[in-house]
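dumping this here so i dont lose it
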């Protein structure tokens, strides 16, 4: 009898932990059908259907070059930006009327809407922001200026009396919401969800660079 072959998979850590369990789609590029790495591949936003599509690297690169012109598929960038001087304080949460400690914000170009999304006891809650609220809450942030519509999001988290703000790929925000949907309890999320969030934000903090550092690369 032969020993069964054991496949060793990469350690479930960092963002992979969050992307892996949610993606129950086939392990192929949704544009060309090429096989892709289930735990590590790029995504595109299908702006017509407001959905994420899994993509192989060549397709992602192709649409990265041509997508800026407003095509249906836009490649989600892989940059993570931080701005230590973002100047956002407690007031931002009141202005935005977000009852929980984590939320993300993005601009939907085709509907010309500003959208806030956050986990809650009822699942992911989405609300539309009017432009003046967006402007007074986030308008002074450099990261808000750099935000690419549809494909990137501002991710805010309240930690005690501080607010953290990152510019991140929009796909990880959907993964976060999916993850939180499974774990979130009550308004503070409960211990498991909070531990999960901490790991998630630790990973983002490690990857994120300032806009100046990003330009120098
Ligand atoms: Zn492809
Ligand atoms: Zn995928």
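and the seq i came up w/
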């Amino acid at each position: 009898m032969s020993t069964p072959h054991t496949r060793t998979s990469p350690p479930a850590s960092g963002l992979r932990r969050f992307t892996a369990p949610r993606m129950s789609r086939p392990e192929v590029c949704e544009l060309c059908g090429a096989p892709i790495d289930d735990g590590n591949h790029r995504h595109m936003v299908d702006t017509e259907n407001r959905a994420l599509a899994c993509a192989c690297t060549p397709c992602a690169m192709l649409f990265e070059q041509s997508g800026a012109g407003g095509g249906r598929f836009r490649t989600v960038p892989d940059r993570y930006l931080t701005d230590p001087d973002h100047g956002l304080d407690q007031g931002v949460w009141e202005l935005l009327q977000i009852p929980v400690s984590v939320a993300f914000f993005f601009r939907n170009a085709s509907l010309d809407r500003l959208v806030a999304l956050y986990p809650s006891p009822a699942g992911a809650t989405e609300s539309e922001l009017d432009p003046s609220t967006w402007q007074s809450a986030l308008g002074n942030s450099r990261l808000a200026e750099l935000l690419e519509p549809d494909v990137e999001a501002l991710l805010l988290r309240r930690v005690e009396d501080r607010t953290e703000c990152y510019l991140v790929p929009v796909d990880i925000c959907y993964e976060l919401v999916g993850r939180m949907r499974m774990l979130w309890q009550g308004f503070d999320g409960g211990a498991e969800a909070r531990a999960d969030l901490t790991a998630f934000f630790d990973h983002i903090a490690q990857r994120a660079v300032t806009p100046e550092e990003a330009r120098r690369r």
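Residues 23, 41, 43, 54 surround zinc ion (ligand 2) (CB under 6 Å).
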